Amino acid sequence: MNKEFLKKIKLILPKFPSIQGKEEYFNSAVLVLLTLIDREYHFVFQKRKNDIRQGSEICFPGGGYDFQKDKNFKNTAIRETIEELGVSKSNIDIIGQLDTVVAPMGATIDTFLAILKVDSLSKLNINRDEIEKLFHIPISYFLKNKPEEYSVLLKIFPSYKNKTGEEIILFPSKQLNLPEIYHKPWGNKKYKVFVYKINGEIIWGITARLIYDLVLRISKNKDVEELFWTL
Q1: Over the range 53-75, which residues count as b (16 or more CB within 10 Å of their CB) and which as e?
Q2: What CATH fold (topology level) applies to the domain 23-228?
Q3: Is the distance from CB of 188 to CB of 152 less than 8 angstroms?
Q4: Please, is 80 exposed, middle or buried when counting C-beta atoms within 10 Å of its C-beta (0-12, 13-18, 19+)?
Q5: Cβ contacts of residue 157 below 8 Å, gap of 6+?
Q6: Could you tell me the CA-to-CA distances from 32 to 62, 77, 97, 99, 173 in Å, in that order?
Q7: DSSP states of 108-159 as a string?
Q8: How far apart are CA 53 and CA 156, in angstroms?
Q9: What is the DSSP letter of 23?
Q10: pLDDT tens, the chain, 231 aa long
Q11: Of 26, 18, 101, 91, which Cα lies nearest the Cα of 63?
């Protein structure tokens, strides 16, 4: 085997493997925020205003990556949190990074776990143009209560019909003489959807998935799990 070839080919391999084609997605980042209230750690949630995109949904602070403002996705998550919650960078302690979520609607969410160091959420000067309210729920609640689980069906459409009924070809499977199965929608992948019902609110989608993932990690380590019950 040619050692010089192996040496040179390694130069083109990614130093830190990521998600192939990530630039084709909407790239975003969020902070899964924890805060200490009455000697117990709580998740910090925000409910979006009704009249904006994804209005009335519950989420963690975060937003889209800005090529002009952000050096990396951690910067994105911190910047968006500062803008939305009205806190300073000194109020945020990053613990570490969680797995990146690749959402079926065409988005990636780089996720960071952080501590929000404030005396009271009620004193925060939140961005009222985007946020209806902030609220918190103890992590122990999610350790005790599992989410409801549902599924949606994902399919790939090589074409679609516009408002006038005209078929718009996205992928010319017939012209490429591919097998007939690809001439119409294919794939029947079920994508799991988690739902938490809490105090009249519904937490679902990516936010619920992030909660479920972190709580599962906590529950698998008894020494860590004990830290999230009342101190």
Answers
A1: eeeebbbbbbbebeeeebeebbe
A2: Nucleoside Triphosphate Pyrophosphohydrolase (3.90.79)
A3: no
A4: buried
A5: 170, 185
A6: 9, 9, 10, 12, 42
A7: EEEEEEEEE--S-GGG----TTTEEEEEEEEHHHHHH-PPEEEEEEEEE-SE
A8: 25
A9: G
A10: 678 888 889 998 988 888 999 999 999 999 999 999 988 999 999 999 877 776 689 999 999 999 999 999 999 999 999 999 999 999 999 999 999 999 998 999 999 999 999 988 988 989 889 899 999 999 999 999 999 999 999 999 999 999 999 999 999 999 999 999 999 999 889 999 999 999 899 999 999 999 999 999 999 887 777 777 655
A11: 26
23: Cβ contacts below 8 Å, ≥ 6 apart: none
Domain locations along the chain: 23-228
Q: What is the value of pTM for the model shown?
A: 0.90
Q: Are 40 and 140 in contact (CB under 8 A)?
A: yes
Q: Token digits for 46? A: 């925000």
Residue 151: CB partners within 8 Å, gap ≥ 6? 190, 191, 192, 193
Q: Where are the alpha helices (DSSP H) in the chain?
A: 3-9, 73-85, 139-144, 205-219, 222-225
